[in-house]
């Protein structure tokens, strides 16, 4: 048995489909799993016979990828649909590597795996991600209610009890009165912290007054608590928005402002909420120290923002550089369908001003 025969026997026992092509671009070999998948013989598949099974819509793309890689003797990877022996088209993930011997480049060796299962697994992971985010929001709302209705009320009762104790003291108990005043001060601070945490977990303003009002409230809180001047502009935003879109944008705003406070060192920022061309856009720009997006592109905060936007059909863009600030833009379509062409943020704001002026007759 020759080395090539041993090699082909080994490939026949592989758990995936394997093919080989020669230096003339024609295909010379397909292993047993491939032939079992297509239900055809080796003689029917060799040279270019196997391409009869490629989905008509995918032939051009596959041919361009194969010939481009072949001409440059470079590896390639492509997904395309191929007809199975039962007549059904299945997605195949095809990856190949150039093959060499003492005489130089001798063609390609490639292997294929069933991409349908991979796509199904990816879809299941996306669905699971959505379920986890929804479950997280339900749990946040529950904890926020407990903080507000239970813990917050108990702290309020504690403050009342301290005040009653103070009223029962004699005027001469100056030291004890001062100590009780300090307790009341700490209790008031604790009550404010509980309200802030409850709002961060679940915004009642978002539920009752909508995204623009919740945006202004959150930015005001950041300004007051951290001494950062946050300018808010909202233009053309509908009075009512789907809850999932409002919540998505609010969480992105929260995450962006939290990151700004923790990492940027910014003294000022601008938040713009604008609706135009059936798109809702949120832009957060700060004047801080910035960073290299390539270094922090896999941060959990960015991953969470992108995943939230994916669930509502939106997209995220990030611009930043060391010592040049950071700008985050989130865009969501306001109706089902394809995301329309989006102009630059400055063009969008200008367009909204023009629309407002026309509506008012100026």
Describe the structure.
The chain has helices at residues 3-12, 32-38, 42-45, 59-72, 115-167, 174-201, 204-209, 211-226, 243-264, 300-311, 345-360, and strands at 17-21, 27-30, 76-83, 89-101, 104-114, 229-235, 268-276, 279-286, 315-320, 326-333. The protein is an alpha+beta fold and 362 residues long. The protein has two domains: 3-119, PAS domain (Beta-Lactamase); 209-362, Heat Shock Protein 90. The strands form two sheets. Strands 2-1-5-4-3 form a five-stranded antiparallel β-sheet. Strand 3 (76-83) and strand 4 (89-101) form a beta hairpin.
As a whole number of angstroms, the C-alpha radius of gyration is 31 Å
Structural class by SSE content? alpha+beta
Count of the separate structural domains: 2
**CATH third-level topology of the largest domain:** Heat Shock Protein 90
Distance between the termini: 90 Å
Multimerization state:
single chain
Question: What is the CATH C-level name of the largest domain?
Answer: Alpha Beta
Please state how the strands of the largest beta sheet are arranged side by side.
2-1-5-4-3
Biggest sheet: strands, sense, closure?
5 strands, antiparallel
Share of residues in strands: 15-25%
The backbone outline, from C-alpha atoms, is elongated
- Percent helix, as a range, is 40-55%
* Count of discrete alpha- or pi-helical segments spanning 4 or more residues: 11
Are there runs of 5+ residues with pLDDT below 50, and where? 336-362
What is the element string, with H for helices and E for strands? HEEHHHEEEHHHHEHEEHEEH
Which whole number gives the mean pLDDT?
81
Q: CATH homologous superfamily of the largest domain, by name?
A: Histidine kinase-like ATPase, C-terminal domain
Number of DSSP-assigned strands:
10
CATH architecture grouping of the largest domain: 2-Layer Sandwich
């Amino acid at each position: 048995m020759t080395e090539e025969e041993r090699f082909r026997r080994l490939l026949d026992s592989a758990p995936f489909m394997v093919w080989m092509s020669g230096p003339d671009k024609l295909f010379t070999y397909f292993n047993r799993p491939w032939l079992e998948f297509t239900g055809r013989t080796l003689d029917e598949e060799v040279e270019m016979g196997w391409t009869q099974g490629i989905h008509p819509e995918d032939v051009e793309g596959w041919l361009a990828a194969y010939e481009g890689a072949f001409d440059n003797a470079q590896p390639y990877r492509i997904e395309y649909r191929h007809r199975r022996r039962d007549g059904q088209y299945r997605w195949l993930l095809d990856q190949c590597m150039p093959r060499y011997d003492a005489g130089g480049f001798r063609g390609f060796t490639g292997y294929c795996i069933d991409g349908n299962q991979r796509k199904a697994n990816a879809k299941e992971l996306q669905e699971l991600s959505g379920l986890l985010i929804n479950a997280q929001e339900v749990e946040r709302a529950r904890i926020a209610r407990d903080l507000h209705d239970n813990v917050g009320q108990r702290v309020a009762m504690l403050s009342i009890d301290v005040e009653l104790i103070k009223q029962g003291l004699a005027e001469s108990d100056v030291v004890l009165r001062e100590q009780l005043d300090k307790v009341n001060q700490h209790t008031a601070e604790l009550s404010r912290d509980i309200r802030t945490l409850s709002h961060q977990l679940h915004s009642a303003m978002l539920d009752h007054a909508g995204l623009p009002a919740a945006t202004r409230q959150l930015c005001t809180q950041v300004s007051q608590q951290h001494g950062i001047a946050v300018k808010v502009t909202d233009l053309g935003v509908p009075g009512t928005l789907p809850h999932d879109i409002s919540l998505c944008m609010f969480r992105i705003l929260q995450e962006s402002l939290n990151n700004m406070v923790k990492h940027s060192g910014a003294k000022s920022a601008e938040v713009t909420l604008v609706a135009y061309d059936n798109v809702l856009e949120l832009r957060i720009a700060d004047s801080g120290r910035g960073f290299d997006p390539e270094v922090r592109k896999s941060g959990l905060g960015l991953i969470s923002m992108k995943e939230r936007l994916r669930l509502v059909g939106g997209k995220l863009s990030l611009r930043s550089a060391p010592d040049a600030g950071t700008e985050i833009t989130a865009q969501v379509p306001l109706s089902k369908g394809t995301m329309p062409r989006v102009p630059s943020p400055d063009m969008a704001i200008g367009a909204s001003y023009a629309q407002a002026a026309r509506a008012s007759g100026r």
